[in-house]
Each structure stands twice: as C-alpha cells, then as structure tokens.
Amino acid sequence: MDLENLLRKYKLSEEKLATWRKILDDVKNKLIEELEELKDSDYERGWKDVLKLLKEIEYIETGFFANLSQALKNESTREAIVEFIKNIETSDTKDFAYDLFKRGNIKNAKVTVISTLAHVLKPNWFIPLNHRISKAVKSLDLTKLHLANTKNFEEAVNVFQQILKKERDLVRASYALYSSIKKPRYWQIAPGENARFWELCVDKNIICVGWRKIVEKLGERLFEFSDYSSFSEVMKNEFKEPHQSYHQLWKFLKEVSKGDIIISNRGRKSIIGIGIIESNPEIGLELEYPIFRRVKWHKTDLDVPIPENLKGKFGGTIYELSEGDLKKLGIKDLIEEILNKIPEETNFVFDELNKILNSKKQVILYGPPGTGKTWLAKNFVDENAPETYKIAKKDVLENVKFFWWSINPRKWDYTQLEEGKGIELWYGQWKRAFEEISDGDIVFVYVGGKVGRIYAVGTYEEKDGKPHVKVQKIFDGPSWKDLKEDSVLGNSIPVRMGARGTLFPLDPDEGLRILELSNLNLDELGLSIEESYEKVETVRIVTFHPSYAYEEFIEGLKPETDNESRILYKVEEGIFKGICRDAHNALLNHAGVEKEWRVGENLPTLTEDELSKVGSSLNNAPKFFLIIDEINRGDISRIFGELITLLEPDKRLFAENELIVSLPYSKTKFGIPPNLYIIGTMNTADRSIALIDVALRRRFGFIELMPDYEVLEKELMNDEDEAGDIKELAISVLKALNERIKRLYDRDHQIGHSYFLKLKSCDSKDDAIEMLKQIWYYEILPLLQEYFYDSPEKLRDVLNGKFVEVGENYFDFREEKDFVGALEEVAKPKTEEG
C-alpha cells in the first residue's frame, strides 16, 4: 500500500485535524515563551506542564515523553535542545531547517525526540519519527530507516522530503502512517453458554456466536449493512432483538477485525483461551451458532480465574477489554509474548515454508551456523499448531470392563442360559483374564459350533470363590463372519485366537462395538457413556547423529525383564511411528470417525462412509509437526529404511496412491498420515547440500537461510541506546568477516547473525563490551579456528591480522588489550581488498 492509499484508508476528520493543529500551535507558543526558564528545568519541574497537551494527539507516542524526560536530566543536553528549538523556530526556509536538523545529533536525544520537537515547531516540514511511524515508513520502502543510527538524521530528512512530494499536510501524513501499524483490539468472546462450544471452536479454529434466526432470514445480507442506525432499525423492527443483543452482534460483524486478540471465557468463571482473529465474519448453517470468524488459537488450555471486579464484563457474548483489564486478569504479558514472538522479517520465510509444506509435506532449512534455522522451525510450528490436541474418548461411566466368554456347545449345553439367572462357568485356558475380571463387569457370551454368534450378555459375579455370569439378555448377536470382518472386532484378541479359550478381555471400544452391532443400548444394562479427552502432543523434536538408527526412529526390539528376571524382547515404537499414530488418530477424531490406531496394532480399517468423512475433513485437519534438527548428520537410508517412499504426498494415507507397508519387527501395517509435516534443519558448514542423500533431496523442499544483517539492525539498534556504537561495531565486524570468508573459503561457512542477538539485552556500553567479548572469544574465534585449522595464513587474513599469531606451521589466538580497537581493525577493509 502506498501513502495515497494510507491517507484514504485512515482519513482524519477535519474536526480532529483542527483540534490537533491548535494543540501543536499552543504547545509551540508555550515552549517559545518559557524557553529561558525551561533551559534550567528538568522534565518534571517544567517541560511536563508545557507538553502535557501533546498527549491528546494520537500519533505522538508516549515513548517521546519518556525519552525526552531522560534526555533533559543532562544539563548540556538540555541546553542543546533549547538551542535547537530556537534555531528551528526562527528558520525561514525548509532547506535551512533541514540542515539544522541534520546537525541535531544531540547526546541522549536521538531522532525520536528531535523529530517530534521539530514537528511541534514546524508541523508542515517535519513528522515525528517514533517507532510506529518509522516502521510504516520502512514498510512503504521510502527508506531503510533505523532509529538508533547516527546517519538517521540525514535519512530522516530524506523521509520528510519524499513524503512532502506525495502529501503537503504532514499532520495528515503522520496520522495515516501511525495508524497503518495498527495495534490490535482485545475482545472477550464467549464460545457459548458456559463454553459449551469450546472444543468445537478449538477443533475447527473458529469462534462462533449465535443469532440463528437472524442468519436464517437474512443470510449474507447480514454483512451488507454499512451503518449502525439502519442495522439497529432492522433488528428492532423485524426481530424484536433487545438493544444489548444486536449491539453485541454489530461488534462481532463490524468492529472486530483481522489481527485483533480474542480472549475466550467460561462464563464469569475463568479465561480458557487466547487467539488472533484471521478472517472476516462468515456463515455456517451446519453450526448451532452459525456466525463465525476464523481464529489462530495460541493458548487453548488456560484456566485463569476472573477477578470479582471484572466479572461484569464477562456476562455477555462479546465485550471489548482494555490493556488495564488484561493486567488485572494477569494475561497481559502472555498476550505480549504471543504478539512479539515472531519478527516481521520472518514472514516471508514462513510464507515459503507454508507453500512447500502444503505441496511436499516436508522441508529442510539449510545455511551456515547461526542463521536461526532451528529457531525459525520452532517458531513456525508454534504459529501453526497448538501445543496439544484433544482426542475424544468414550468411556463407560461406571468404569466397568468388557469380556468375551466362549462356550463350546459340544462340551456345555448353552440352552441352560436364562435371562435373570446366574450360571457357574469353568475356568478355561485363558486364565489371566480371570485375574482381571471383577464383579459387575460386562460379559458377552459367544456360542461356537453351528450357532456361531454372540448369544447373550450378562454381568460377572463371584460366588463361593467360583466364577458366575448372571444373564441380562439373550439375543441374536453378530455372527462369527460379522465379527471377523468388522474393522474394530476383527483385530480383537478372541477373534484373532479363533475364540479358542474361555474368557478374553475386550477393549472398551470393542465392547461398545458389540453392543452397537447387537442393537443393544447401554441403559438396558444399567450403564451410560461419558466423553473424555486424551491430550496428545502435536510437535516432536529429534536430533539426528551418526549412530541414530531405524530402531530409535520407527520401531525396534528393546530388552526388558519379567518378574522372574528373565530377559524378554519387546517391540517398542520410535518417535516417528508415535507421532504418525497420534496424527492419524487426531485426523479420525476431527472427521468424526470413532476408531483408533492403537500402540502395537494395525491401522484400523475404515468403511467407505468413514473414508468419505476423512476425505472431506482434510483441508482443515489438525496439523502435527516433526522437527528433525541436524538432519544431514544422520544416515538417512538407515534411519528411514523402506519408509522413505511413504513420505511423498501422493503415497500418504488417504491419498491417490496410498501406500501401506508391514513393519519388520511388529509385523503391523503402517502408513504416514497426510496431516504430519516434517521440518529438517542442516548446517552447511558440516555438509554441503549437494552431498546429502539423493532420495531425501527428491522428497524434501529446501529453503536457504543466510546471515541477515537487517535482523540485527532491527533487534539491536534502538534510539537512546548507550551501547549503540558497540552494537553497530558488532554488525560491521560480522559483515567484514563474512565477506572475507566468502572470498577465502566459501559462502556455506559464513557466520550467522544469531550469535550477536545476545547483545540485545545489554543497556550499557560496558555490558555490551563484556557480552561481545564472550561472543567473540568463546563462539566466533573457535568457529574460525575450525574453519581454517589447516590454513593459518587465511585465518590471519580473515581477522585482518588481529587476535591471532601465525608461525611457520602453526597459529595461536591472543587476547587483545584494546578489544574494541582490535575489532574496529577487523571491521576495516584491507587495502588490497579495495
């Protein structure tokens, strides 16, 4: 968007413009009148009263007052500021004022302070270059403006001149630029009464609200109202809606916008989630609450109590919260963390990551050490997947267990079974099950031979130390053929063993499946179902190394001892198989399919209807991510084995060319779900991308990450920073080093920017020097030593002769007495380099 469009979008009313012009004029007059007195006053004793009117002007940030207050504590700075005000005020021409401004590099008063004062004095020549306006200027590509650089004053004049070419009124321009870097609004939005739609909202990444009758009558016309008065008229006359109700609906439709923060609540009890709005309002009549917006949920498992003095704001559907409310709730820092987690510079990388992952399902971030590959992978994953996913589970409320009791009609007369009567049965071959069963457990009675079906259901009871079944109901249950062909029961223990034995345990969903096939209701057995949730992690991280193997990644035999100290070997699943299983189960749950891929078992077989459900839910399926750090250090063919082919998108589960394989240890069926994404990282200083496994290169997309000096400039260079010159030196040194490394070695062995990001926390010059020493001596020099171990002369050239002693066949590092001076020498170009 260009400045003209910004001015149209963020139109400033004539009334507000006139008010602000008067404030600027009043403050200027007051400043000039009291300047001699202010020369000897600090901010609190004089300047504060003069400038307090400026706080009413929206585009003058509060940071200006804080920075000015700090600057005015120094007597010489105060005198220089007063002199600057006099000179600017008496300037007859714009060019002369700009020349004065360029020389306005006053100690402790950088561009944010000086440009704002200049704007107060000459509002048609200057704009206040605070953080938000500077960010907007940069986004328009008007200049690469960094607020802490001493060259800023010249760059700032360039900004003033470029903006004046497009817009003569710099008050309007300042407001438009400031508004374009929009702060989000904070909204409490309830996911139904007592949060009854919360799981649905998290699952579908939405927030939904009601007003179904209105939606059914108006449909998309609901979005066409352009003003509140006509909207409220329709609500009152056609729907008889109370004012509070339709006022809240208007907020959801028109005031909430993309980028705003949503705080979801469970009534007046607690905050349960935080997300960011990602779409305009939409209609989904399949939802009970049919108006919704898409949301990127960042926190979904909160339980933050709502204080008594805020409960009144959480009684309705939607309410706008202030930053003060967030503080009282104790979630302001959490929201700031969410908003500040990802710098804007990474957005283009995230876009590339999304494109490649959507097409290939896996990507590798590669580049020199210290370019933020792992950091980017983790933050991308944080942005695109919740920490956990809840998979719905059905449990029998009374916590009873299910069993299968086999009867051989040639050995025992099954006609003795009568409803309401207890029958003693013998212990059979399956003795372990008798240790697990207890009074009240459900027993399905299977009669073999010519009957060959589930014949009765009863409850277990022990009398005089002997097992009994009290028959509840005799019925025509599923046949042996039905049981064998069923996707759930076909893999159960009694069916796999051909019903040879007496008593077999059943999993809860196997017992519920027999009831379903038998057309029996739980209440007929005096039972009921409750729905619970199993939380599974959506992200796993693994680091490859030369000895990492298939057995750790997919599955392998692990020794364990039994009660008699005998060594047994058990098949144990690795990290990759585990996340595949969890992603698959989350996908089935999301699609409404009540089946599960259990540990140590085959993939469940789905019916045509269930396959259709999964297929139609793939677009918004829950995402799972596996981050493989140092992927190039592992033996890929040994780690992935035969599964490397299954990574391809068209060979994933539910894809056109779906491939399912039998694993060598467990002999179970295995496939890779389509909602699992893999992000690998590799350090090109260890191994060139050209040397990695061909099969891996064919199946992965690749994104190169190189040293990014703009990231350092943005993160380190801030106005009013005492350590600014040291941080600037660090950036210059890194640039010089990398230029020489590219010339003397190659581009893959450059040094990344992330090593120097630790300087961000240094507020004083001494702290910055100490931190830079730590970085230099313990991280940068050892890395260079590794690179040029066999080339002492090249190492000396890279360091411009500093920090190293080079002999005939050796080199030693030395500690420079003048550390800063030595670094300045390293940053200088050598004469032979031109």
Topology diagram in text:
Elements: H1 3-9, H2 14-33, H3 35-38, H4 43-51, H5 62-71, H6 75-89, H7 94-102, H8 111-121, H9 131-139, H10 152-166, H11 170-180, E1 186-189, H12 198-204, E2 206-209, H13 212-218, H14 228-239, H15 243-255, E3 261-266, E4 270-277, E5 282-283, E6 291-299, E7 304-305, E8 318-321, H16 323-329, H17 332-340, H18 347-360, E9 362-367, H19 373-384, E10 388-396, E11 402-407, E12 422-424, H20 431-436, E13 442-447, E14 453-463, E15 466-474, H21 480-485, H22 493-496, E16 503-506, H23 508-517, E17 529-537, E18 539-543, H24 550-553, E19 555-561, E20 567-573, H25 575-591, H26 608-616, E21 624-629, H27 636-640, E22 661-662, E23 669-670, E24 676-683, H28 694-699, E25 701-704, H29 709-716, H30 724-744, H31 765-787, H32 792-798, E26 804-806, E27 811-813, H33 819-827
Helix pairs in contact: 1-11, 4-5, 6-8, 9-11, 14-15, 25-26, 29-30, 30-31, 30-33
Coiled coil: 3-41
Protein name: AAA+ ATPase domain-containing protein
Keywords: Coiled coil
